[in-house]
Every structure is written in C-alpha cells, then in structure tokens.
Amino acid sequence: MEPNLTSILAGGISGGIITLVTNYFILKTKNKHSKDTWNKDFAVSYSKLLYEKPEIAKQLARQYAVAMIIAEYPKGVYLKYYVPHMCKVSVGRMNDNDIVLIDEKISRDHGVFYFIGDKLYYKDLTSKNSSYLNGVEIDGSCKLKNNDIIGVGDAQLKFIQF
In the chain, N or C terminus with fewer CB closer than 10 Å? Predict the structure, then answer.
C-alpha cells in the first residue's frame, strides 16, 4: 500500500511539532540552569568585592538589584540600600553590617535579609529588642511582600521589590 499525500503531510507536520516542542523544553531548561549559575557566580563575586572594593560593590548592587530597602529614622532621615539577587543583606549596629543603624535599641547583629529561590525573607537574629513585620513581632523568619515594613529599634525598613 502506497502512502498518499495526506499521510505524508500529516507525518511531516507531527514530526515538526514534536521537534519544536522538544527544542523549546531543552532551551528552557538550559536557560534556567544558566540563570541559576549566573546568580550564584554573581553572589560570590559580589561578596568578594564587598570587602575588597566596596565602592564597586555598591555600584553592582544598584545595577543588579531586585529590591530596595529604605531605612527611615524618626527624624525624617531616609537611606536607600539595594538588594542584589541571591545576596544576603545584614542589619545591625556594628560597622560590618550591610545596613548599619546607629540606635541603642538595635543589636550589633540584629537581622538579615536572604533569598530562598526568588523570594526574599527577613530573619531576626534573636535580637534583644526583636524585629517587627508590619507591627507584628517576628518569631524567626518571615517571607516579605512588596511594601512590607520591618521595624528595628526606632527605624523602619521598607521593602520595595522591583
């Protein structure tokens, strides 16, 4: 039995669709792996630059930020901090923190912002005076949403996701 034109066309079209779908999923998997690898490499490079060349690290943080934290003090002083993807941002009174807040109510190492996947979390590091998410005391860690406010001492840290 000889194949007719319709069966030849149907076989060619279905073969083309299968190839197209397969290539799409292969490309999507490769892109996700490349993005994950780039994010991890960036986090390592950023951490190294933070200690070796802090000014360059600040420029990179701003350029590759996925969020911003605005620290507001009671007297109307505002400071902006940029959060690069997959990088931790520490909060406290000591100068080795990323966000240094001068306030006796804030512990030396008060808390830390960190990523799990694409989501940003805040963890209170068992500080003496606690941290608050939108006015509610944080027990351990909390997942952040856009415009959430973390209260530490007399400062308010507003989380803005890009």
Answer: N
Measured CA to CA, the distance from residue 75 to residue 87 in angstroms comes to 30
- Name 78's Cβ contacts closer than 8 Å, sequence gap at least 6: 70, 71, 72
Crossing angle for the helix pair 5-52 and 54-63, to the nearest 10 degrees = 150
pTM beyond 0.85: the answer is no
Report the C-alpha gap between 15 and 20 in whole angstroms: 9
Q: Among 36-40, 65-69, 148-152, where is mean pLDDT lowest?
A: 36-40
- CB within 8 Å of 119: residues ≥ 6 apart: 143, 144
**Residue 106 confidence (pLDDT) above 80:** yes
Please, which residues have CB within 8 angstroms of residue 154's CB and are 6 or more apart in sequence? 73, 74, 103, 105
